[in-house]
Amino acid sequence: MKLSEYNIIPIWDSNKKLYTNTISKKDIEEILFKGIKDTKASCKYGILLGISRKTEAIARAKEAAKIYKEGRIEKILITGGKNGISSIGKNQTPLKINLNNQSISEIFADEYSEGYRMKLILHDFARKELKIEIPDEDIILDEESNNTIENMNFAKKTFSDLSAGDSVIIITTGYHMRRAIGTAMKHLSDKINYCPVIPQTGYFEKDNYYKTSLGYLLASFDANRCIEQARNGTIADIEI
């Protein structure tokens, strides 16, 4: 079944800033997690997608540093501007959800872009924990993109040397990976093999997202958004 074919009608409430339709746990897990598996590919480029939520940002940046050290990627594109939907000024998570999940919902309140901030986290972790230096020439920084579509459009302009059949690693949180791959297929290339690398946060993966109201909200959001965007053609209509 393709994303667009699910019997789900996403209903977005712009006042509450969330989808109000009911979506089952079974459908969420099929839409977001079915078939998503790290193929252990090695390639030239890895895309580290930015976010302002501390728990996720730190986990993503650390994972990118780890696979760089392992030799799985040569260059890291770190993306993210200052106005993404998880940023302090644009955060769409309802206040009650944030208050009930304070240990994992905290958002960076500095003036940095998501991309620059995650570059700092990556360097710090690489030096202190992995005992390696990641040279600046191996990092490509995008501080302008504020959503996944803009991230992948930037990648398309940057990865001019990619050919059909090449691989690209995407590093993002579990609930976001399907939409990230669908967006890459639509806006970067549908001739590329995308390898998902998911950091284990303990809160946002298949085995645990439903254990907190924040995890469930984010997963529900992305499942609905995947269907909505597949239907309107802004991401690839992936076969699940």
Task: Provide an overview of this structure.
The chain has 240 residues and is of the alpha/beta class. It has a single domain, classed as HUPs (Rossmann fold, 3-Layer(aba) Sandwich), CATH 3.40.50. Helix content is 38%, strand content 13%. The protein has 8 helices and 7 strands, in the order ββαβαβαααβαβαβα. The protein has helices at residues 25-33, 54-69, 95-100, 102-105, 114-128, 148-158, 177-187, 213-232, and strands at residues 12-13, 18-19, 43-48, 73-79, 139-142, 167-171, 193-197. A 5-stranded parallel sheet has the order 5-4-3-6-7, sandwiched between helices. The longest helix is centred in the last third of the chain and has 20 residues, at 213-232.
Overall average residue pLDDT: 95
- What is the SS-derived class? alpha/beta
By CATH, the superfamily comes out as HUPs
**What summary fits the major beta sheet?**
5 strands, parallel
Query: What distance separates the N and C termini?
Result: 6 Å
Provide the CATH top-level class.
Alpha Beta
Shape label = globular
| Residues in helices, as a percent range | 25-40%
Rg over alpha carbons = 17 Å
What assembly state would you assign to the polypeptide chains in this entry?
single chain
What is the CATH topology descriptor?
Rossmann fold
As laid out across the biggest beta sheet, the strand order is 5-4-3-6-7
Number of helices: 8
Number of domains: 1
The residue ranges in which pLDDT falls below 50 over 5 or more consecutive positions are none
Report the β-strand fraction as a percent range: 5-15%
Please state the second-level CATH architecture.
3-Layer(aba) Sandwich
SSE arrangement, N to C: EEHEHEHHHEHEHEH
Task: Please give the number of β-strands.
Answer: 7
